[in-house]
Write a structure and sequence with these properties.
427 residues; Growth Hormone, Chain: A
């Protein structure tokens, strides 16, 4: 990891929060105060808008397939294009946040994304819809690229994982509400009207976010020099712990993206044959994700980061296996377990990134988000392919393979930590 002096020109915002610990601790926002509540609510709403827009077409894929006369794999690109563009643009957006400020970039990102969201219902073809979704995903990249860095600079360290957990909880509420709203609206008026209604709801969240979020007090503008940015990125990619966390985020999201991309197709087919409104309501299980993400701090406190990841992986695997049943009740139980495990694992891994990266937090977080959404894009596409080839069993097999990867990486991390402790003790 380069010294603070070599990275100061791009990471002074993060350095200002860490170079003088006593001052930073005293001046950052403490949990429970009015500023903390406003900040948490604002970023919660940003998370709601981001996930509602990012996955707005996911619950509607069967209707989009029918409307354009395309396969599930083709329709899934309306999800993959958005998440793939976000993965591609999150790192450049993190650099812009270092220069222009976290709040400024998040505001601009949401403004562009909601504007595109109001145009999407008028897409004349699947190709046009995919292009608009890609633009929307690129715009939304500014929110995850900036949110955790903003919190790391403005919130006291002991409250960081809880604050990030609330932002992740906002993601789960956004994912849930977007799917539930679009499901019922689409059942009555079609998928285009459903996406229009969701766009209007996102506008309200974006306006409330901007009005609530306190002005940053610890941000100092940095440089946009590509060479310095590249040096910071190389330093993060040379950190084995950060790379393991990036891989874990990608693998967890591969499971989640695969499951929720094709679950609508499964529930629309026999033996369930559910109507679109009921299928949309199934996504109420996202509330479980809200709870598991917001309590991730206590889970890590009791079990440690690796223990929390093992528990999250085990819970996700159990949910995948239970979901193989032809009983609707057991399928829903499986979705509950998958959702709880995923959000707990995501919150534990993403907060560990912010804790591990002493310098260049925005870039460290951006790399995690990039890996995370690469996993989402891969999961959406591969999940649809697996479902087409082997039905729900194929999707579950893909998910179990990804969870096995999470466990293997966590085991490697445990061995590396023990080896490091022995090395330190020897000296």
């Amino acid at each position: 990891m380069p010294s603070a002096s070599t990275e100061a020109s791009t990471t002074v915002g993060a350095v200002s929060a860490t170079s003088d610990p006593s001052h930073a601790y005293d001046s950052r926002v403490a949990p429970g105060g009015p500023g903390y509540r406003r900040m948490s609510l604002a970023l919660f709403l940003a998370g709601v808008a981001t996930f509602a827009l990012l996955y707005s077409t996911q619950a509607l894929l069967p209707l989009i397939s029918g409307g354009f006369g395309v396969t599930a794999s083709a329709a899934s690109w309306t999800v993959s294009a958005a998440t793939g563009a976000l993965a591609l643009f999150v790192l450049p957006m993190s650099a812009l946040s270092e220069r222009f400020g976290r709040r400024t970039l998040m505001t601009a990102s949401l403004a562009v994304a909601v504007t595109v969201g109001l145009l999407i219902p008028f897409a004349p073809s699947l190709g046009a819809l995919v292009v608009l979704r890609a633009v929307q995903g690129a715009a939304l990249a500014g929110v995850p690229a900036s949110a955790t860095a903003y919190l790391a600079e403005e919130v006291r360290p002991k409250a960081l994982i809880t604050a990030i957990g609330l932002f992740v909880a906002g993601n789960s509420v956004g994912g849930m509400s977007g799917r539930v709203v679009t499901g019922w609206v689409a059942q009555e008026w079609g998928w285009r009207v459903a996406l229009g209604v969701l766009g209007l709801l996102a506008v309200g969240c974006a306006v409330a976010f901007r009005l609530l979020l306190p002005a940053p007090k610890h941000f100092v503008a940095g440089s946009l020099r590509p060479a310095v940015l590249a040096r910071t990125v190389r330093a993060h990619l040379a950190n084995p712990l950060l790379c393991r966390l990036y891989a874990i985020g990608a693998l967890f999201m591969t499971v989640f993206g695969a499951v929720y991309t094709v679950i609508g197709y499964r529930l629309a087919e026999a033996p369930f044959s559910l109507p679109q409104g009921i299928i949309g309501s199934v996504f109420l299980v996202y509330l479980v994700g809200t709870a598991s993400a917001s309590t991730a701090g206590r889970l890590v406190g009791r079990l440690g980061r690796r223990g929390a990841l093992y528990l999250a992986g085990g819970t996700t695997s159990a949910g995948l296996l239970v979901s193989l049943s032809d009983s609707l009740a057991l399928v829903l139980l499986g979705l509950v377990l998958i959702t709880a495990g995923f959000f707990a694992g995501h919150a534990a891994a993403s907060s560990a990134v912010s804790h591990t990266a002493e310098q260049g937090r925005a870039q460290a977080s951006a790399l995690y988000q990039s890996a995370y959404y690469v996993g989402s894009s891969a999961g959406s596409t591969l999940g649809a392919i697996a479902f087409h080839a082997g039905g729900w069993f194929g999707t579950v097999a893909l998910g179990l393979l990804a969870v096995a990867g999470v466990v293997a990486i966590t085991v490697v991390g445990s061995h590396a930590a023990r080896a490091q402790r022995r090395l330190v003790a020897a000296h």
